[in-house]
Prior knowledge:
Blueprint: H1 4-11, E1 18-30, E2 40-51, E3 54-65, E4 70-84, E5 91-102, E6 107-117, E7 124-133, E8 140-153, E9 156-167, E10 178-188, H2 190-193, E11 199-209, E12 219-229
Antiparallel strand pairs: 1-2, 1-12, 2-3, 3-4, 4-5, 5-6, 6-7, 7-8, 8-9, 9-10, 10-11, 11-12
Amino acid sequence: MKKLMPFIALSLPVQAETLWSDFSLSYLNGSHYQVGDSDRQVATFEYATGTSWGGAFLFIDRLHSDNGDKETYGEFSPKFTLHEFAGTGWVKRLSAAATIEVGEEFTHYLYGAGIGLKPAGFNYLNVDLYRRNNDSGKDSWQTTITWAVPFKLASSQWLFDGFLDWSSAIGEQGTAASMNWTSQLKWNLTPYLGLKSPLYLGMEYAYWNNKYGIQGVHERNANLLIKWHF
């Protein structure tokens, strides 16, 4: 409980103004997963918000494998603005950052700092550096990059977004450095269906070296993607 208290306290939006918020549901179907059954379906709930104190991102995955295995995994990532940069440059803000990773048999705590960038053509580009407090072993380091780039092909609206996680090795445990680059290429169907909320159809691709820190386990996994924002 003591470990949880800093995150609970920091995540309370006391007298905070909500500037924007977004909910989404997505469905993935892929056949090239590593570690466990290769064929899986994944339902994901996501929530993101921007506030006067910073913002937060939450997602919960529910995984169903063809062999009958089921798993739930989630992350909660609050950010707290330390400084806003004026002007029209790339650097927008400096933030304190944290993440809680919760799986079936573990809970990891990450804490560090992040920088928010907005180069031309990007909705956002964030770089965060964390110290990982691993539940089942020694601490390590993680760098996370997230981005979103909208673009048009003819009259169609597209979005290319995703994340890259790099985690350092833990030599004493034999855990290898791991790099997970997961991106989504999505076509916005909303204009063709007369919807008020964005509905995307596309593909998610995971390029993951040393998955879960397991040396030599490399995942190259394309998934059918359907995502609805509401």
